[in-house]
Specification:
Oligomer: single chain
Radius of gyration: 14 Å
Number of domains: 1
CATH topology: Nucleoside Triphosphate Pyrophosphohydrolase
Strand content: 35-45%
Number of helices: 3
CATH class: Alpha Beta
Length: about 140
């Protein structure tokens, strides 16, 4: 049986740096240990509501979604589930205190140049950062 799901991820920019997470071993896969905060949208939940909830659950950060902008849509299929996802760009005035859930074991605040120069960060994450430039007003 074919299943579908929706997901959201947040590209968070604060003081010129982007937040990237490293998946914990129980969540990790060989394709991409790097990630943005985010996850699945619950039934009946709006994308923005899911974004706020997922970021809070994974990082303890309250994102201001008043200016959040979608920057990229993506599709992912795994174990018979088709996921339609959206990456949102969110700007915060300062780097907030970050406390991770069990899903991730490290976080980093990187400049765009640091992200682009890091060969371990996958191209799909770099693409989202590049696409955020047109939305970036800071």
């Amino acid at each position: 049986m074919y299943k579908s799901a929706k997901a959201v991820k947040a590209l968070i920019l604060a003081q010129g740096k982007y937040l990237l997470l490293v998946k914990s071993l129980n969540e990790n896969n060989l394709i991409a240990p790097w990630d943005f905060p985010g996850g699945q949208v619950k039934d009946g939940e709006a994308l923005i509501e899911a974004l706020v909830r997922e970021v809070k659950e994974e990082t303890c950060i309250d994102v201001d979604v008043a200016n959040a902008r979608p920057v990229k849509r993506w599709v992912f299929e795994k174990d018979g589930v088709h996921t339609d996802g959206t990456d949102f760009f969110c700007v915060l005035s300062e780097c907030p205190e970050t406390k991770l859930s069990f899903e991730h074991n490290k976080f980093y605040w990187f400049t765009e140049n640091e992200i682009m120069a890091n060969e371990t960060i996958p191209s799909w994450l770099k693409d989202t950062v590049r696409l955020s430039r047109s939305t970036n007003s800071v």
